[in-house]
């Protein structure tokens, strides 16, 4: 079962494999750390039972992007 939880700074080192689509922008670590510090409640991640990251949410909407 997939678990939705708060994104942590350590997740940034496992994150880039989510955005494999060439049309999806991936920013540098400084952008994500600033975003995480400013809006931690809006930064969520979907994690598989094996610990793999499956999706992320970076905005205050009820939309969750799964890959």
UniProtKB/TrEMBL annotation:
SUPFAM superfamilies: Acyl-CoA N-acyltransferases (Nat) (SSF55729). It comes from the Eukaryota. GO terms for cellular component: NatB complex. GO terms for molecular function: protein-N-terminal amino-acid acetyltransferase activity. Belongs to the acetyltransferase family. ARD1 subfamily. PANTHER family: N-ALPHA-ACETYLTRANSFERASE 20. This is N-acetyltransferase 5.
